[in-house]
Write a structure and sequence with these properties.
Number of helices: 6
Number of domains: 1
Low-confidence stretches: 1-18, 152-158
Helix content: 25-40%
Mean pLDDT: 81
Order of helices and strands: HEHEHEHEHEEH
Strand content: 15-25%
Strand order of the largest sheet: 2-1-3-4-5-6
Number of strands: 6
């Protein structure tokens, strides 16, 4: 019954007009709207105004043309992502959300071992369903900047935000949306 309700809700999202985006959000995924999932492109388009992209090169073309404030990356598609681009996006303080990846992999992808500090989200207590990890470098003063060409050692003074949560229900997805919108409403110098 629950999966029938979820499927009906997601089908409605795929057909409904996209939400008016408050920020530029790109979603890198190989999922289709035919899959009944909160992570389906149509659901993210409807709820966040996110633009789904299936090829990493296309995502970067879109980002270069009009920089994204957030990029959501589906763990199932991450093998096609370019590691240098991901690390540069992180250094630029773009909000990065990863679906179904634990912190050791995220730390490797963004080239920042501190992401997994303290054993945070290391997979030792796996989520039983879909989940997200969100990371962002933060420039806390005007002297600190978010720059793609900065070396990881030059970023040590910058702050960092991390969050994670389950994505098993509509209520969980609303938590994700709230956290993402909070991160996006905090401008970086």
């Amino acid at each position: 019954m629950l999966s029938a309700l979820l499927a009906a809700s997601l089908a409605a999202c795929a057909q409904a007009p996209a939400a008016e985006p408050q920020a530029r959000i790109l979603y890198f995924t190989h999922r289709t709207d035919a899959e009944p999932s909160l992570l389906a492109p149509g659901h993210l388009r409807q709820t966040l105004g996110a633009q789904a992209v299936g090829e990493w090169g296309d995502l970067m073309v879109l980002h270069r043309a009009q920089p994204a404030e957030a990029i959501i990356i589906d763990g199932a598609a991450v093998a096609q992502a370019n590691l240098d681009d991901l690390a540069a996006l992180y250094r630029q303080c773009v909000v990065l959300a990863f679906f179904n990846l634990y912190s050791p992999e995220v730390a490797r992808l963004v080239d920042d071992p501190s992401v997994r500090a303290g054993g945070w989200m290391d997979g030792s207590e796996p989520y039983p369903s879909d989940f997200y990890i969100m990371v962002q470098r933060e420039a806390r003063t005007d002297e600190e900047t978010c720059a793609a060409d900065a070396l990881p050692s030059e970023l040590s003074g910058l702050g960092k935000s991390r969050s994670q949560y389950s994505l098993a229900s509509d209520a969980d997805f609303e938590v994700f949306t709230g956290v993402l919108n909070t991160r996006l409403s905090d401008p970086q110098p």
